[in-house]
Amino acid sequence: MTDSRAGIRRRRAATAGAAALLVVLGGMATSGCAASPRADEPPQRAKLTFQDELTTSYLRHFTESELEEMPGDYSEPFYVNLAASRVSPGTGQVSTRNIKVTVDTTATKSVTFDTRKREQVCKGVRGLVTCTPKNLKSGDSANVWLFDMRVRRNAEDGPAGPMKITVTSDNTPTIHRTIQLVVGAPELAVREGEGLADVAPGSEVKARPAFGNRGKSGLDDDLSVVVDVKGQATLRRQFSNCRYDKADAPTKAVCTFPRPLPAGAAYETDQSFTATVAETGRQGAITYTVYPAPNTPSSAQLPDSAPRGTGAPLGFRPVDGGLFTTFGRESAHSAVQFLTTRTRDLQVNGFALRGQVGQTNDISVKDLDGYYEGGVFLTLPEGVSLAWHPTGEGHEELYCGYVDEKNRKVLCPAPLIDPPTLRFRIDKRVEGARGTVSVQPDPEHPDPDLTNNTAPITVEYVD
C-alpha cells in the first residue's frame, strides 16, 4: 500500500532491524551473566543491557585507487548502544554509577583503532580500549561512539578476529558480548514493495522475497529471511525448511539458508509465501527482512523447537537485481501491502504488555488494527503506567501520552511515517488486570461494524 496521507512532515532513514512492524523493544537479554553478589552487598537496583544485537561487524574495504581518490576520512565509527533499567520494584529513576566500557581488540588483525573520542574519555593501551561514558538513568539509553575503525591497506577480505566488550558500573551487574570483525562489507538490496487494492476478504495474497548484494564484497555468512504478516491475515505453513510461530494460522516464518551471497548476485525465492486474508479483514501486509544470519535480532528469531512447514523446502533462483533498492550491510526490508473492500471497517487487535515488575518496556503501536491512520486510544491495565519519554517538538520518535493520567487514559497519535511508541512501566502485579485499546469511527465514512472497534489489553508478568 502506498501511504499518501497528508501531514507527513519527516522521513527517517531506515536502519538495521527497523523493519519489524510490531516489536517489543524493552526487556532484551544481555549477552553475558552477572557475577553473584556477596552476601553483605545490597541488592542491585539497576542494570545495563546492550540494545543493538549485532554479532558481526562488516568493514568497508577500499582498493588503493579508491583510497587515492577519497578526499577525507574513510574510517568506520564503532558504537555501543546501552540502556539502563531498574531491577528492584519501586518508583522514580535510578542512576547507574561510574560506567566503564572495556574493549579487548588484541585478537583482531588488519584493523586499526582510533580512540581519540573526548566525549567518552577513551584510552587505548596494548590493544585494550577503556572508555568512561556518562551515567544513565533507568529508562534512558545512549548510543555511545567509542572509537573509529579502519581497514589497513592491502588487507584481504575475510574474518579479522573478535572484539570482546565488557561493561561495568558500581551498581549494576557486569555484561559481556563479543563482536566478530569481517573485512569486506556487503550492500544488501531488495525488490521494491508493492501495494494491492480491492482485495477480497477471505482471499489469498502472495509475496515472493527477492534480494541481492550490490556491494563490492561477498557475504559468506548464512542468510536469514524473516517473514511477518500484519493486519487481518495469517500465513500458510508451507515450507519444511522454515520455522513458524504457530502450528495453526501462523503470522511469522523464519527461514535460514546455508549459502553465501556473492557481490553482484541477486535471487528470489522459488515459491511464494501465501497469506490468507480474514473474512472480515480490511488491510495488512506480508513483510520480509533479509539478514546475515549472525545479525538476526533475537526479537526476529524463533526457537529450534518451533513448528516446521509441511510442504517442500523453499529454495532460490537467480534474478536480475539491477533495480533493487539498496539498504545497508545488516538487513534489507520490503513488503506487499494490501487493502480490502472493507477498509472503512476500523478494527483493533488486543495485545499483551509483557515484562517484569519494575521494568520499563517499549511496544510499537503500528498494526494493532492494520495500518489505521488515526489516533489509537488506550486504557492501561491497573498496575501499569506510562514511563518517562521525550515530549515536545524536535524528537525523532512519536510517543503515546496521557490524556487522563488519573484514569490511565492514553492517546497514541496518528503515525506519520513510523508508528507511535508506547513506553510503559509495570509498577506492581495485579492478577487479572486488563485494559482496552480502541479507535473512534470517522464521521465522514460510516463504520459498518462497531463491535470490533475495542479490544482487550492484558499483562504478562515475567518472573
Automatic annotation (TrEMBL):
<protein>
    <submittedName>
        <fullName>Uncharacterized protein</fullName>
    </submittedName>
</protein>
